[in-house]
Design goal:
CATH class: Alpha Beta
Low-confidence stretches: 1-35
Number of domains: 1
Helix content: 25-40%
Number of helices: 4
Structural class: alpha+beta
Mean pLDDT: 84
CATH architecture: Roll
Shape: globular
Radius of gyration: 24 Å
Strand order of the largest sheet: 2-1-6-5-4-3
Strand content: 25-35%
Number of strands: 6
Largest sheet: 6 strands, mixed
Length: 201
Amino acid sequence: MTPKNSLTAFAAASLLALNLAHTASAEPASVPTSYAVAVQDNPLGANAACGMGEPDSASRSPETLVRALYEVVTGAAGAKKDWARMANLFAPGAIVTTTTHREGAFLADPQTPAQFAALNERLLGHRNFYEREVAQRIASFGHIAHAWSTYETRDQPDGPVRVRGVNALQLLNDGQRWCILSLTWDAETAAHPLPAAFGAK
């Protein structure tokens, strides 16, 4: 390398070092405090964990947030379900882990709320599906909560119960609303009947 080239390379390296130093010292982008959980001494910072859209009226409490899910997924065959509303109940990056019992095996498939909506349309869109909550247990601390929601499904609103089970939801309040971080469930079987603690009769 010639002296001239050496000086050019040194100058370029110096400029790069100055730019990196300036970038590292720059103030991070601010997040409206009304949308963010307060963070102290956290290198990850704060973010609008439940999203920036208009909060659904059901997001005012864990209890109403969970019940809103049943309103979305329930309906007659061919009914148009409000998947946009459901998406607004979930946090960005939330996970829905669908589960099923098949031939003695327990299968689970983590997916996005959008994927869950598409699966629901494919499996249930052509038939009646009525699901309602029959018991709810909420344990909360500060901005976080866990919900156990016992459900029953029917083919008709007043028909016999087809399936019973429990939905498990992790919830977060970002200072503006409650939202769902994760959802999964398990259905009742002969091997594990619903206990009285989950509202079984």
